[in-house]
Every structure is written in C-alpha cells, then in structure tokens.
Amino acid sequence: MENFDEYETVFIGYPIWWGDMPMIVYNFLEQHNFDGKTIIPFNTHEGSGQAGTQNTLENMFANTIVEKGLALRGADAQKMEADTQAKIDEWLEELGFPKTEIESSTFNFETKTVKLNSGYEMPILGLGTYALSDEQAENSTYWALKAGFRLIDTARIYGNESGVGRGIKRAIDEGIVTREEIFVTTKMWTSDYENGESAIQASLDRLGLDYIDLMILHHSQPQNDITAYNSMEKAVKEGKIRSVGLSNYYDEDDFDRVANAVEIKPALLQNETHPYHQSGKMKNHIAKYGTVLESWYPLGGRGHTQTLFNDETIASIASAHGKSSAQIILRWHLQAGQIAIPGSSNEQHIIENYDIFDFELSQEEMNDIAKLERNERFSNY
Ligand code: NAD
User: Fold this and answer.
1) Domain count, the chain
2) Pocket residue to mutate for ligand 1, from 296, 350, 353, most atoms within 8 A of Cβ
3) Of 49, 75, 333, 370, which has the fewest Cβ atoms less than 10 A away?
4) What's the order of all strands across the beta sheet hosting 268-272?
C-alpha cells in the first residue's frame, strides 16, 4: 500500500470468517508497521459479534492504539436500514468523527427539486436549449413549461437567451406559471470573463428578467475564471443572481482551485454526464462543498443518442417498464442524484422527457446501468 506512513488512523474492515479475521487481514497487519498509529476495527458477523478479534488486535501491537470497534450483523449491513445507519453514526461520533457538517443534497421526488447550498430549491429536471435557434428556443421553452418543466437552461453563447425570455413571458402571460415558480440558468462565456458585470446585465436584458436563478461559468479558464466568478458573487449581493456555479471542470484540483478561492461556494457543477461517462468520482468530490452535479448531454447529445438508446441494457430496461430509452436514461440521472437537462425542439419529445415520475428503477436496474460506465466522453469540448 502506497504512502502507508502518512496515515495516523487506519480503519480495518473484515467479515468474521470461521470465528476469526480472514487470513488476508492478518497478512496485511503483519506486512505494515503500525507503531504510533491508531487502528479502528469494524466487522460483519452472523451472530458472533467481534468473535474476540478486538482482543487479538489489542494483543498484536504494543505501540498501537486499538479503538473500540463496531460489529454489525451481515444481513443488517446489507440492508442498511435507518437503525443500522444510526448505530454507525453513533460509533463514529464516539470516536471523534462527527457526521459531516454539509448535508448531502437529496433529491425530493415529490417536489421534484433539490435544495442547493445557496438555500434555493432547484428543479431536478429541466429543458436544455443548446443548438436551438432563438425561435426554436422560444417554442421549446413554452412547450416545456406547459408540459410541467420548471427549469430552463440557456447560455449567452447559444444566442437564444431572448427566445427563452419570450417563451417564459408567453407562459407567464397565459397563466401557466409565475416567475417565482420557474428556475432559469444561463452561463457566462469565456470571452466575457474580464467584463462579468456587463455580461450579467446583458444576459438579464436579453432574458427580460430582473434576476437569474443560477448563473454558471461556461468553462474553466484559469487565467481569469476567478475574476469572473467574483463578478457573479457581486451580482448575488445586488440581487441580480440567486445562485452561482461552474461548468466544464473535469479535474478535481481545477474545481478546488476555484471553490477554495471564492466566498460563495459553487451551488452546482454542470459537466458532460451520461451512462458512458457517469462522473461519479467528481460528484462525490464536489459534494463536500454541498455542490450538486448537473448532466449536460444527458442523452449523449446530438448524433450520439442512438448509441445510448440502443444500448442493450437500457433498451431492455425500457421495454420492461413500457418506457422509452430516453425516459429510462433521464430517470437514471435523477435516481443517481444528478440534475438532467435534455435538449429538444420537438414538443412530443419534450412531453415524453417530463413523463418520468410515474415509475422507478429498481436497485438492480440502477446497478446494471452503473456497470455501463466507460469513462468516455462523446464531446472533447
Ligand atoms: P442531449 O443529450 O439532451 O440530447 C439532445 C438530442 O436528443 C437532440 O438531438 C434531441 O432531438 C434528442 N432528444 C431529446 N429528447 C428525445 C427523446 N425523448 N427521444 C428521442 N430523441 C430525443 O444533448 P444536449 O441538448 O446537447 O445537452 C443538454 C443540454 O445541456 C443542452 O441543451 C444545453 O442546455 C446543456 N449543455 C451544456 C454544455 C456546457 O458546456 N455546459 C454543453 C452541451 C450542452
């Protein structure tokens, strides 16, 4: 094991095997120097508790602290019901590892929203408008709001913020939604990073709104993205933007570079994410800032959707539920805990994409889709 010397505390987990620790754990213990370190054991068992392994560990090392371990019944560990979780939390708390301060953002399937670290509720399913003309964006936005969508994603570089604004106005004028009920995201383009303040005002003007629910930086650009981010933070204080975030940060250190330099932590990271590029590691990484992941190219993006729709696993789950492959993929995004913003200029597709709240993927189906991970992006953008 690399860098073993750098660890002060080592958690050792094992199943009780014939009343003892498995041989592989003994091998590990014998091959490493635990002097001055703390060991925290935990195990699963079928009724024998720690079966004396706590004592074995205490007797094995003279210069090592062995903390009080935890023994869980195998079946309870597998089910992980609330009382088992509470037992683990209590044990960790006793050991001085209190539950992490940041509440992980949970998706509420009743309200179809997630609470951001900014305190605002954000819809978990939205309409994407990339590659839509101004006129298409107007119609798609209007159809989406009519179909139940409450989140619209646009960007200054798409050249359709005005169309999105007109679509919103049409829906508000017709009494379909109120401004407060909807959530509008736009993005600051990289060439505007030095002039954030005027870029924000220009987006507000084109959208015809007096505040933007979420504004994100379109792309990592180390020479001036923090400057741009600071201009969004200023706009938050002025009430022009409610939440701020990032897009296209694929390297954990690059994300940290910005997140650690700013006052208002990113509420969201929008990255290419779909069954062949699931972004699990990044999603876990950003969760420590309370940052939520949002998937662009949720269906693979133009030109690639058929690859995903015809994937055997996805197609067979679709036929089992009597749903389309697109609906299965979108439902997977939400159950996996990432916001999805499928793009479309087709009213029937838009209606179909919102019709995913009347069924649920089983744990097994979620696991099968998880296995499709290839860590492969369709875009090199
Ligand atoms: P997507 O994965 O949503 O796929 C869009 C394609 O799927 C279109 O060709 C559409 O016609 C088709 N489609 C949609 N619903 C369908 C259905 N029910 N059945 C069959 N086909 C269907 O790709 P996207 O639109 O490029 O990405 C989603 C959104 O993410 C964009 O619209 C945009 O808002 C955002 N985005 C952001 C970035 C970024 O850099 N931050 C990059 C790309 C996209």
Assistant:
1) 2
2) 296
3) 75
4) 126-128, 151-153, 183-188, 212-217, 241-247, 268-272, 292-296, 338-340
